[in-house]
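haha ok so turns out i had the wrong file open the whole time. this is the CORRECT one, sorry everyone. sequence first:
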Amino acid sequence: MASTATFPTVLRELLRTHQAFLAYAASHVHTLDLTLPQYDILITLGDTAGMSFKKLGEKTLITKGTLTGVISRLEDKGLVQRAASKTDGRSQIVQLSAAGGDLYQRSYPEHLAFINRIFTDYAPEEVGNLEAALRRLQQTVSTLRSEGHGKPADEADE
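then structure:
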């Protein structure tokens, strides 16, 4: 079991890595005149017939309030369009426009190659070990959260 002294060091490195990755990914996405959340929507919608706002929020982890603004800005750029849902008259489906589809087809393979450069110096087993460790961490956090362990210890029993 890890000591409590490990926690701040591991968390700090996890956050630094996350920030460094986002900055690296953004450096490519900004060349497309998009933000990371906008590109996240573009690649999530790529090769699909479209998705509801709810499904987009689940797949991208963009909150509903933020999602609406991101979609609106992509509409202004002519990259997505909203259509009425054929199954639920109350909801809308967000789809890539022709220009959005073209941008996705042109940029996604390039973006994947850009991201994969991160792992150039890693052996396949190192990548597998990293993925397994991160998956285990995510599952542990999700399990604790679903069990109601999201409150500080002094509030958990209230």
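The chain has one domain: 11-122.
again sry for the mixup
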